[in-house]
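Bench notes, afternoon.
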Amino acid sequence: MKLAVSNIAWSPQDRLAAYDILHQHSITGLEIAPGLFLSGADDPFAPDATTLAQAKKEIAASDLQLVSMQSLLFGVQGAALFEGPEALSQLKKGMIRAIDLAEQLGIENLVFGSPQQRNIPAGMTAQDATALAVEVFTALGDRAAAAGTKIAMEFNPAAYGTNFLTHAEQAIAFVAQVDHPAVTLNFDIGAMYMNEAFENIDTLIPGAISQISHVHISAPFLASAPANNADIARVLRLLRKANYAHWTSIEMKAPEGGLVELETYVARLATQARKLEGQGS
């Protein structure tokens, strides 16, 4: 099982201690929000050589590798998928910027969430929105494939401020419609809870396994995760049974308990993964 943690779970000044926690629990993957990982750069999506070299040196010291990127449109003003040509142009530029950084860093997965940038406005039908999104992400998929990465579409619940791809089934259907090897699915456990659909994972994960390029172990509104040992064991067991070969990443905001609380949840995921390995199934 390839385990990772997103760096949104700690502040930049705590990064070295956080890396040490991951290393102690044999977590080898690091998912990044560039604005946090390269916080010392004037532009984290176009980092200077010194900042980039230092960031790489720090993770190498803890045997970590960069496996996924999120917060792809950080700092991009006026970007939106369905708000007209100018807003769409800003979104495309922002995504290309993220793809280029992923190529530079050797990151294989880009999580496209950005719920408020993909809200369907009044007056646009769902069919027209989907057709436009298919066109946009087919082209972005070409760019991602050339850069050696993938765009993983994340279903975001309506509570996050969107009305496009709010449920797993919708995101699965969208990825199938795009039908591009570099446009995949990010399977988010927190969203399954928020949609009151967690019980559907037994069919959804095996059915969509060929589309899934990344999994977020998360809780509603990015609370600390994994919150439930039985649930995380169930998720990991399903992934293993389906021969899932990609990364499974904790996604949580920095907890009130700081690094002590972070370690509790990192240990919880690592322990459940070890138990599964010990069971041999």
